[in-house]
Design brief:
The protein is 43% helix and 15% strand. It is built from eleven helices and eight strands. It is globular and about 50 Å long.
Amino acid sequence: MADVILVDTTLRDGEQAPGFAFSRGLKVRLAALLDAAGVGQIEAGIPAMGPGERKTLCKIMDVCFQARVSTWNRLCEADIKNSLSCAPHVIHVCCPLSDRQIFCKLRSDRDKVMTALQRCIELAASGGAEVSVGFEDVSHVTGQQLAQAATAAAQAGARRIRLSDTVGRYTPDAVAKAVRLVLRQGLEAEIHAHNDFGMAVPNSLMAAYAGARYVDTTLWGIGERAGNCGMGAFTAALDRLEHHNCAVSGQGAARLEKKAAPFIPRALLEAWNVPAARTARCAFTAS
C-alpha cells in the first residue's frame, strides 16, 4: 500500500498558470490519464464557477476508475452546495488562517472565520463526502493558531488538513513542525507547496518524511506565479527516500507527462521549460 498519495491539482491550481485555460474535453482527457497512471486523488475544479464547470466535473468522475475526485471551495456555504450537487468523493474547503488573510482579505476576525468553517464542514459532511480543509497562508500562522484551527476542524468532522503555503514562504524545518502538529491533533496531513524560491519539491519531501500522507502536485509543476510541486520531480526524488513509496513512480510520472504534453500548446510548455515540448506534436483541441 502506498504511504504517499498524490493529490494532483493540475486541473485546478495548474490551470492558474499564465496562458493555461483547459477546455472541457482536455480536462476530461487529462483526468483519464492521471487516473490510469495511479494518481490517488484528482482536484478537478471549482463547482461554484458555474454549470459548465459542474458538468465537466461530472464527466471527470465518469472517466476516473481508481482516483478519487475532489472539488475546491471557498469558505462559503453556497460553494459547498454547488459541490454537493456533483457528489464528489472529497470536498475541500479553503480557509484563510493568517492574520493578514483574515483581517485584510476577508475583513473579518478569527472567531467568525472558525464559525464559518465549522458550518461549511458540517454541510459538506452531510452529503457523505470526505471533508478536507486547506489552511491558506499557513506559513504565516503561529503553532497555537494552527493547533486551535485544526482542533475546530476535527470537531466539525474534517479528516484531513492541507497546509497551503500560499506565498511560497515555507522552509523544510517549518513544514516538518507543522505536519507533526497536525498529526498530533489526530488528523491526516497534506502539503500544498508553491515554488517561489525553488522549494516546492524539498518542502513536499520533508512533509512526507514528517508523516504527511498526501502531497499536492501538478504536471510539469505548472501553477500560479512560480508554479507548484512538479509530479515528475517529486516522485523521482521520493524514489530515493527509504521507507516511502507512492503508486506513481518517478518513471511513471515521466511517462505520464510525456503522454500529456501533446495536448498542451507547445508555446506554453516551452515557457515552463518542459523538455517534452521539444518533441511533442500539439494535439490541443478547444472542444
